[in-house]
Specification:
The chain is of the alpha/beta class and 284 residues long. The protein has one domain: Aldolase class I (TIM Barrel). The chain contains twelve helices and eight strands. It has an eight-stranded parallel sheet with strand order 3-2-1-8-7-6-5-4, sandwiched between helices. Strand 1, helix 2 and strand 2 form a beta-alpha-beta unit. Helix 2 crosses helix 12 and helix 8 runs parallel beside helix 9. The protein is globular.
Amino acid sequence: MPLVKMSSVLGPAMEDVYAVGAFNADNIEMVQAFVDAAEEERSPLILQVSQGAIEYSGLSYVTNLAGFAAAQASVPIVIHLDHGKDYKQNVRALRAGATCLGIDASMLSYTQNSAMTRQICELAHFAGLEAEAGLGYVPDSADNPSADAVEDSKTDPNQAAKFIKETGADLLAVALGSMRGMRQREISLDIDRLKAIRSVIRVPLVLHGSSGVKWDSIQQAIQYGICKVNLAACFDRRLTEVMRKELAQMPKEINFRKIIGPSRDAVKDLAREQLRLLGSSGRY
């Protein structure tokens, strides 16, 4: 299937009240696992070009890997630049074949975030694509942020309406209390704040740091506008857990495919489970 724009998958998700999984295209095994899972579940999928993968493999390698896999699929797949750093990186992603751009300037002041986001949105719109931005900050769990810090970093609903009007962002990542890199699902989202955000803006809303959020809270958030859910740490954990198990059982094995193959299958099984929980299974 030809690559598709973000609105092609999030439009139906908003209308029918489900979410689309956004999974990091970090290596060939992950990409194969995610695409196979989407095919078997008949689900749309967003493959994300993460900053970690860019630093490790290079933007063009990762984008082209995701694009090749997506082009072979029979379900719609978006290639998205996740947490884009600046204008130049977005241009490179556009040239490499990304079908949705992105900028994460949420750690900057509101004025700086708005100005940078407006530039990226203008670039995306000129190319006939869309762009994701963020307002409010999703902290890393490794930094052990205090409860007050997490509360202070949440998205301000009043700023959200102003931000969308100023920037033209097509989808907005909002901070509702989640944290990146969580090992367990312990967090409940601030649903009241989400309701307030949804009451003033109508663009698709995005949840980052979802691997540490309780599933019932994610599913409740989907009812109030979250229709793109970023998941990464849970898949990294599953891949490495199974690799450790296989290595322990075959300590002298040098054929890496025998080690990483079962790990890829385990990630696929987990991805299928997540797609069902998001409500996107059976949509195509």
